[in-house]
Amino acid sequence: MKTLNFRVILFAFALIFGVVFSIPSLTQSESGKKITLGLDLQGGLHMLLGIKSEIAIESRIKSMAASVKYIFDDEEIIFDDLRMIDGEKITFELLDTDEVTKAQALLKKELEGTVVINNGMKFSVTMTEAEVERTKQNAIQQAVDTIRNRLNEFGLAEPTVAKQGEDKILVEVPGIKTQEDEQRIRELIARAAHLQLMAVDEDRNIRVNTMSLAEAKSYGDVILPDVNTGEKYLLRAIPVLDGSMLTDAKVGFDESNQPVINFTLNGQGAKIFGDFTGVSVGKRMAVVLDNKVYSAPVINERIGGGRVQISGRFEISEAHDLAIALRSGALLAPVYVMEKRSVGPSLGADSIKASSIALVLGFILVVIFMVVYYGMAGIIANVALIGNLFLILAIMSLFGATLTLPGMAGIVLTVGMAVDANVIISERIRELLYEGKSVAKSIENGYSNAFTAIWDANVTTLIAATVLYAYGTGAIKGFALTMSIGIMASMLTAIVGTHGIYQWLLPKIDKNKLRLWFGIRTEGVK
Amino acid sequence: MEIFKYKKPLSLMSKSKRFGLLSVTLLILSLGLIIGKGFNYGIDFAGGTLIQVQYNGKAPIEKVREAIDSDRSYEGATVTFFGGEDEVVIRTKTSSKALGVDVGDQIRALLQDTGNFEVRRVDMVGAKVGSELREKGLMAMVLAIIGILIYVSFRFEWRFAVASVMALMHDVTIAMGMIVLFNVEVNLDILAALLTILGYSLNDTIIVFDRIREGIRTIKDPDLGGIIDESVTRTLSRTTLTSLTTFFVVLTLYLFGGEIINGFSFTLLVGVIVGTYSSIFVASPILMWLGFSVGGFREKEAEKLKREKEKEKMRAMYENGTL
């Protein structure tokens, strides 16, 4: 027998490589890279979130207003009529002509990315277009990070949070068992966790129950309800400070052993808070979370040190989730669900079972058919087919690719199509044998004749698959990936591998036993 | 074992008019169905919510219907058995707007008194996502076709490219027609199946075209029809065989793959059949109909060969130092 040739060696390597790297996936062992099962196969929650970035712009404007107020108060510049208009700009009026230049310089220094226009003492501040765009991008990136932090803190196995397209967020959480967990996760994600400390407009609060929203707005106020009692408060629309100055949030307990949330402010926040409480003794300050008032205690004295507490008759799990949300930061803009898919674990298991049965049955059918039709040539093709399957698994494992239900169907289909190359080659060899060529020549020419056809057909299919991968979403991407890997693997196994095996076995192939080797009758040969 | 043993070319081209008529009829019927009746878009594309519920025992479908109908916001919801008799699928046009309010939770609450059940799947897709997915799918299809046109034109000739794309559209259109006819719900997986047909049909056609290209070079027949007849006959055995193995596999997927991929495997079944038919009977006649000239192709090929030989000569001269 001829010594082993490079093709057989290459094929053997590919086979070993395939087997070794598909073992972790097949046995689902802990170690080693393996294929991740898609949510449709293992069960879990998949959500595509949209983001209302216009809200981020609005709150940016709001915090600009808060800054203006703080800076001018600090520098003792007297101003009046500070307003936000249509969530697009802020306007105010200075009272002293001498301070216009000073105000301009201060605003320029303190407010980045804005355009300040003043007509005499009337000022208007808007954001530059670049700043608007940056704020939007920032809002989505921040939402991705925040949601990821929250899910990680919640302690779930491997959640995926990723930006998708320009303005969407993909969240995938595998292995959710109960409806309650799912709901808690949804709430944790959705929680804006927008914390604001707001002054109560004590002068007018007495009329809050008869006041219209428009009237409140004309005073620069907002009306917000209490989370537990539903009682209404009239609050200054521009907050004293907001959650961006928060450094930590923890669950604690008050005297009556009720859960509360303690949070700590950073240096700037602590200073603002200290100054504000210093001048507002005897007045109330509302702790507002996501536009609901949690508590509105009367300020008894100046509070330094930057420690604040929210009490609000929480359930312990609620307090826990809220602390996570506060700690991970507020969402600059609210998110909403565009798409949600949740698959129970039992359905995923059923899907795996059904498609595995199909895969195994289809595989056996093809294997038997090839042997019956081609004899030894069929067996050689089957060896390539098995090698192909292992290679697909191995490559997918190494990429950490996700196997979805359509992906499994893609593998099933690959089994059907992978024998194609060997069918083409075997048919070519048969043709040449019928023409009376020698076995060696038939094999060599059979391969070279078949090659261009296989190559062109595969490349065109690969082009289609690549486009699908680039443009497809989720399931289609998975499908395109398995198909592409299958095509490339079959080039190696079905063309190079089988060719090598033929060359290796050549001395054994007897022209009088063509029926055994190629499934054709020797009598038909010229 | 052999199914077709090559003896002499089948006279396929002489019958091409009949197959052309059959294909055109099928195409018109399919387009009529697609335009007239339209696709039954599932929630992936139309938006809405789908809830799959498995009961312990036979599902009380009437009770489920009543329960769903009791809430007016789910008007027009449909309840159907799914796979066996223990599972039902509820489809509504409503989809959650806020994260807090979830259609799945609400329906679960409505079903509370209908028996012992487990919610196996909740899919909710907003209408906006649906139209985006549709656009992206279409875009992928168009780009794939352009890519194929370029590659095949480059490797063969533009008429081969146009013919293969026409054959491919023929197959996909007929498969779409069957989807409408059998009222298969069109979701992302159906789109994936249609795209697979695209790949499969292309594969089949290119193999035949490759043989025709080879035939033009080796067969001394000046008549394209004769070359096509011989080439198609010679690849017939391969075409049938590969189609058979693929058909077996897809059939097992259809029979044993479970209800969830039924639509997917049905579409593939149709695709394999139509794809095989078109690569034998449709693609090559289009090539002829487009006015492909054997003489012209041979001349071009000869010129290409001449240029290559000249290059070779120059290189040889260069290497020998005579240039």
TrEMBL record, chain A:
The gene is secD. Forms a complex with SecF. Part of the essential Sec protein translocation apparatus which comprises SecA, SecYEG and auxiliary proteins SecDF. Other proteins may also be involved. It holds the Pfam family SecD_SecF_C. The chain crosses the membrane at residues 357-376, 383-401, 407-425, 446-471, 483-505. Belongs to the SecD/SecF family. SecD subfamily. InterPro entries: Acrflvin-R (IPR001036), SecD (IPR005791), SecD/SecF_arch_bac (IPR022813), SecD_1st (IPR048631), SecD_SecF_C (IPR048634), SecD_SecF_C_bact (IPR055344), SecDF_P1_head (IPR054384). This is Protein translocase subunit SecD. Residues 338-505 form the Protein export membrane protein SecD/SecF C-terminal domain. Its main location: membrane. It is a multi-pass membrane protein. Residues 140-202 form the Protein translocase subunit SecDF P1 domain. HAMAP family: SecD_B. Part of the Sec protein translocase complex. Interacts with the SecYEG preprotein conducting channel. SecDF uses the proton motive force (PMF) to complete protein translocation after the ATP-dependent function of SecA. Keywords: Cell membrane, Membrane, Protein transport, Translocation, Transmembrane, Transmembrane helix, Transport. The keyword Transcription does not apply. It is found in: Cell membrane. SUPFAM superfamilies: Multidrug efflux transporter AcrB transmembrane domain. It comes from Sulfurovum xiamenensis.
Automatic annotation (TrEMBL), chain B:
It comes from the Bacteria. InterPro entries: SecD/SecF_arch_bac, SecD/SecF_bac, SecD/SecF_CS, SecD_SecF_C, SecD_SecF_C_bact, SecF_bac. It is a multi-pass membrane protein. The keyword Transport applies. Gene3D superfamilies: Multidrug efflux transporter AcrB transmembrane domain. Keywords: Cell membrane, Membrane, Protein transport, Translocation, Transmembrane, Transmembrane helix, Transport. The chain crosses the membrane at residues 137-154, 161-184, 190-209, 263-290. Residues 109-291 form the Protein export membrane protein SecD/SecF C-terminal domain. It is found in: Cell membrane. Belongs to the SecD/SecF family. SecF subfamily. PANTHER family: PROTEIN TRANSLOCASE SUBUNIT SECF, PROTEIN-EXPORT MEMBRANE PROTEIN SEC. Forms a complex with SecD. Part of the essential Sec protein translocation apparatus which comprises SecA, SecYEG and auxiliary proteins SecDF. Other proteins may also be involved. Part of the Sec protein translocase complex. Interacts with the SecYEG preprotein conducting channel. SecDF uses the proton motive force (PMF) to complete protein translocation after the ATP-dependent function of SecA. This is Protein-export membrane protein SecF. It comes from Sulfurovum xiamenensis.
